[in-house]
Amino acid sequence: MAGGQLMLRRKMLKPGEDIYSRKAPATYTYQDMFIGNLLLLEGFTFQLVWPDDYALGYMELHPDQFPMSNPQLVMSKFRECVKPVYKQFVARFISTTKLIYTKFRDAIRDVMGDKITDQEILTLARRYATPLEKCQLPQESLRRLAQDMLRRELYDDFERLRESFLYKDPGKAGTVTRRSAYSTLLAARLPIHLDLINIILDTLAEIDGKNEKFVNYDRLLHFFNYKDNPSTPIAPINIGKNMSWLAVGRPQQMGPPECMKVDISALVDDLHLEEELKEQSQ
Prior knowledge:
Helix content: 40-55%
Organism: Ranatra chinensis
Structural class: mainly alpha
Number of domains: 3
Protein name: DM10 domain-containing protein
Main location: cytoplasm
Domain DM10: 1-63
GO cellular component, one term: axoneme
């Protein structure tokens, strides 16, 4: 069967629906499109295994429509499940900071069992995937691409974004850790491809004496602000289609799940359970 000919643009009925019922039969929607789900289409059973990186990025940019791709919701769900076994969970990885995806998936499954879907596990894995090597693209090319994405979506809430960075910088040093910068941009739902955000942060980050990466957030905001600091407009392109690593001259960020590495120590830190458990024990 030729690609795209099974569904075309038709609405596909769910199994067991009666087309002659007075009630409109249920059809598959985007909410049924998540990793691990089984779809019965025209007598054929399909399992959704692995979407492309653009599809995952799109879902993460629209968490209201795709709650399984909302890292905050998934993290909250995991936090509640891991709380009773937190000490044992941490002890498993006391000498390990990074896990390959399959081991990370198994570790999450050991805690949550069937209470979490493959899609939600992947959302956590992408949230804590180890940063890539620095991009070789000129900063101006990255800035033009980022500003084009922001301009297309009419995003201009840079003042509120700066307030979020100030909250993460109580000492008023003017910098935050790379990890904190990423989580701040993610929470702000910046309409920029997640892979591009990682590339920009790695490009702008500076390393201190303790070998930790920091980002000057005023410089980052200046980089994004197409109103006060506009770059030369790029030629109109389909961002989704062209945001591939062939287009930007580097390997794909995530690749197959077996190749992904997850920073388990960062996930443990973001659980913030250490202090809570100490208070409960006192």
